[in-house]
């Protein structure tokens, strides 16, 4: 196994994308940079160890518990924007994000430290998607200015992991702007690696703006090599001020994913500032992984003003999921300026799902400005899936302008299957403006999945804006399969607003898939706000599929927030199908943020299909984020089906970055048929990209001579 362990050291797969924790700087950035008309609060914030006023000292009437749920905001700001009303009204009331964010900053300025717990608890209960997290970042940044110690304590105990990411990022961003050493010290004391990474990312990001060299030194000292994606953010911020210095420093890092992430951060930021200089620097890099990965990750930023140049760069890249993302980014940017030109280019792409999506996206942009012209273009397309997708895309955009015109067009040109899909697009838009009219139209449709989906979409969207009205409508409908299926679209909002009445409704549903689905959705959504009650309710359900799914859904949600308690509960359950299902659910969710703890809990459990599936899920997730530790875990596993399942998932993930290592791992699988199947799969893919190296591996493999010859013939075909 020593050879494999050495091979594993090449495996660091970057975590791409922007962490939701980066929203945490929202208050500080918005308050001090984006809202110059708002007087800035003092930056003399006390360090975490200091004491600040108690809520009672600020609130003569009593303790923090006496503070109203939403503290009153000022009546207006100097520009005349009123900010009175509850937080819920503020978030829902503005149509533009600029106004909404501006009022959120003003609202945050009106609050005191003692107001924050109740305001944030109110926010956690709102079903507003990403806006909740943006608001939580602003509010937590304000709290961190007022009382960083209390803000940090609240962030650590929040039960919503996404909120925890945002809150910790906000708190540590604010702390670092005032007292870097105190922020670093507090970050080290957090009780999990996940939290420490979030905090460190915010601290280093803050320091990168003022002293990037020191930020890099600290990153290396803090052993962040296990989290190479941090370097993308650090070097991006460095490059925003001095791209040449950032680029030179990135090239000094040791070869590997850390340096690649640093280079990607430089290129993405530099290309926004000076595309020509960024492209010139990128082109002079020596050929190799550094150059290829920097191009693949950030070429969407190169040439925003001249899309055809970017098209040429895209055409030189191999087919991959990343290339598809880049096509999506290109079309999005290009279509905003010239949708027809973007559409022409998209039509010239080779036939693929990426081409279909690009065409649909360009048409969507075109139809925002001129739906009639876009519709006329689509009508000339040949019948097929591409035309159907295009009709659906245009219908949704057109409905936001003129529902009746969109309906008339769809009914005239769309084939039955395409018509159902287009009506779904229209239903979302219609429900926002006139849900009752949309429901009346939906009820007139011919019975079937298209009708049910249309009504479910409308009721679900209606519930986001007026929950009581939507529930009243559905409960007043005569019992039917249509009613029960439509009700499933309400399960999220129902669980959030009134889980007890949702549970009562669930008992009236017929005991089949409709009830099972509703109960499963209700349980997992209820568990977000009150896992104890959700679990108690699920436990008293009659034995059967509905109960098993309710317990699994509840425990899955619970394990996202408190995996140790969820695991302890599962261990105490009696043997049976419910426990088996719960084991897999808890282990998979736990592995999202602490795979080592999840596998430690699973280890002593007997072999079962659930354990096998759980190992497969864990290996899949772990190898994406930390293949070093994942490979060390695999080495520790005893032979058996669970290990083979984990190895299969692991090798599927790493085969692209290190096919040799993936092949060697596949050869360690115990089941002969599974081993040969996986080895063949890896060698076949390897043969397409590096025939010489793959051929050498084929000759050494455990495959039969006949199988080896088949693979070697593939090499001849490729050449």
Word description of this protein:
The protein contains 43 helices and no strands. It is an all-alpha fold and about 725 residues long. It is globular and about 65 Å long. α38 packs antiparallel against α39 (about 640-655). The longest helix is centred in the middle third of the chain and has 27 residues, at about 320-345.
Beta-strand residue percentage: under 5%
Unreliably modeled segments: 1-84, 298-306
Alpha-beta classification: mainly alpha
Largest sheet: none
Give the overall form.
globular
Task: Report the end-to-end length measured between terminal Cα atoms.
Answer: 34 Å
Produce a short descriptive summary.
With 719 residues, the chain is mainly α. Mean pLDDT is 75; it is low at 1-84 and 298-306.
List descriptors.
719 residues, mainly alpha, 73% helix, disordered N terminus
Please outline the helices and strands.
Elements: H1 2-8, H2 26-34, H3 55-58, H4 87-93, H5 97-109, H6 116-124, H7 130-146, H8 148-157, H9 161-178, H10 180-188, H11 193-210, H12 212-221, H13 229-241, H14 243-251, H15 257-273, H16 275-283, H17 289-298, H18 307-315, H19 321-347, H20 353-369, H21 371-379, H22 385-399, H23 403-413, H24 416-433, H25 435-444, H26 449-465, H27 467-476, H28 481-488, H29 491-497, H30 499-508, H31 513-529, H32 531-539, H33 545-561, H34 563-572, H35 577-591, H36 595-602, H37 609-625, H38 627-636, H39 641-654, H40 659-666, H41 672-689, H42 691-700, H43 705-718
Helix pairs in contact: 2-5, 2-7, 4-5, 5-7, 6-7, 7-8, 7-9, 8-9, 9-10, 9-11, 10-11, 11-12, 11-13, 12-13, 13-14, 13-15, 14-15, 15-16, 15-17, 18-19, 19-20, 20-21, 20-22, 21-22, 22-23, 22-24, 23-24, 24-25, 24-26, 25-26, 26-27, 26-28, 28-31, 29-30, 29-31, 30-31, 31-32, 31-33, 32-33, 33-34, ...
């Amino acid at each position: 196994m020593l050879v494999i362990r050495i091979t594993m050291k090449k495996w660091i797969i970057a975590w791409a994308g922007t962490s939701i924790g980066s929203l945490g700087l929202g208050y500080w950035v918005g308050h001090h940079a984006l809202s110059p008309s708002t007087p800035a609060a003092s930056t003399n914030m006390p360090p975490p160890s200091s004491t600040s006023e108690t809520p009672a000292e600020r609130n003569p009437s009593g303790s923090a518990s006496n503070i109203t749920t939403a503290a009153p905001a000022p009546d207006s700001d100097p520009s005349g924007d009123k900010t009175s009303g509850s937080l819920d009204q503020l978030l829902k009331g503005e149509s533009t994000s600029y106004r909404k964010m501006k009022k959120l900053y003003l609202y945050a300025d009106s609050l005191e430290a003692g107001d924050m717990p109740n305001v944030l608890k109110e926010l956690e209960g709102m079903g507003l998607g990403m806006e909740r997290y943006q608001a939580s970042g602003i509010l937590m940044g304000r709290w961190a200015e007022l009382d960083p110690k209390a803000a940090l304590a609240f962030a650590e105990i929040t039960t919503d992991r996404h909120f925890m990411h945002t809150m910790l990022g906000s708190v540590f961003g604010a702390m670092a702007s005032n007292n870097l050493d105190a922020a670093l010290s507090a970050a080290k004391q957090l009780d999990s690696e996940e939290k420490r990474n979030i905090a460190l990312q915010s601290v280093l990001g803050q320091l990168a703006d003022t002293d990037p060299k020191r930020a890099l030194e600290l990153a290396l000292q803090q052993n962040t090599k296990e989290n190479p994606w941090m370097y993308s953010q650090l070097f991006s911020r460095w490059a925003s001020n001095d791209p040449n210095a950032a680029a030179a420093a990135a090239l000094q890092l040791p070869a590997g994913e850390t340096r690649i992430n640093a280079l990607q951060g430089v290129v993405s930021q530099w290309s926004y500032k000076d595309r020509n200089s960024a492209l010139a620097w990128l082109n002079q890099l020596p050929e190799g992984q550094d150059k290829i990965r920097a191009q693949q990750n950030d070429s969407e930023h190169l040439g925003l003003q001249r899309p055809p140049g970017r098209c040429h760069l895209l055409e030189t890249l191999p087919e991959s999921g990343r290339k598809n993302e880049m096509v999506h980014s290109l079309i999005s940017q290009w279509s905003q300026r010239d949708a027809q030109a973007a559409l022409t280019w998209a039509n010239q792409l080779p036939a693929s799902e990426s081409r279909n999506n690009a065409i649909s996206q360009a048409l969507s942009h075109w139809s925002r400005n001129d739906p009639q012209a876009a519709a006329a273009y689509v009508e000339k397309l040949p019948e097929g899936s591409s035309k159907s997708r295009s009709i659906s895309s245009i219908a949704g955009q057109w409905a936001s302008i003129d529902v009746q015109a969109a309906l008339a067009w769809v009914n005239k040109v769309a084939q039955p299957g395409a018509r159902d899909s287009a009506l779904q697009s229209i239903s979302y838009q219609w429900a926002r403006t006139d849900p009752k009219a949309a429901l009346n139209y939906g009820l007139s449709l011919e019975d079937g999945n298209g009708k049910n989906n249309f009504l479910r979409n409308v009721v679900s969207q209606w519930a986001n804006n007026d929950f009581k009205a939507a529930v009243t409508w559905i409960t007043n409908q005569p019992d039917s399969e249509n009613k029960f299926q439509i009700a499933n679209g309400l399960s999220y909002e129902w669980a959030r607003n009134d889980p007890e009445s949702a549970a009562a409704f669930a008992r009236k549903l017929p005991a089949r898939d409709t009830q099972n689905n509703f109960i499963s959705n209700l349980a997992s959504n209820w568990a977000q706000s009150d896992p104890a009650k959700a679990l108690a309710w699920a436990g008293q359900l009659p034995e059967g599929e509905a109960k098993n799914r309710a317990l699994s859904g509840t425990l899955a949600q619970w394990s996202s927030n408190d995996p140790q308690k969820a695991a302890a509960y599962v261990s105490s359950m009696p043997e049976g199908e419910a426990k088996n299902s719960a084991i897999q659910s808890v282990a998979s969710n736990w592995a999202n943020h602490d795979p080592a703890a999840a596998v430690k809990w699973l280890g002593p459990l007997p072999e079962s299909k659930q354990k096998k599936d759980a190992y497969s899920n864990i290996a899949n997730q772990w190898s994406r984020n930390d293949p070093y530790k994942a490979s060390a875990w695999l080495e520790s596993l005893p032979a058996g089906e669970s290990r083979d399942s984990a190895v299969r998932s692991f090798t599927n993930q790493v085969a692209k970055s290190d096919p040799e290592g993936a092949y060697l791992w596949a050869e360690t699988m115990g089941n002969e048929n599974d081993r040969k199947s996986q080895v063949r799969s890896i060698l076949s893919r390897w043969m397409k990209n590096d025939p010489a190296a793959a051929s050498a591996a084929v000759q050494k493999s455990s495959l039969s001579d006949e199988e080896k010859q088949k693979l070697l013939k593939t090499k001849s075909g490729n050449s």
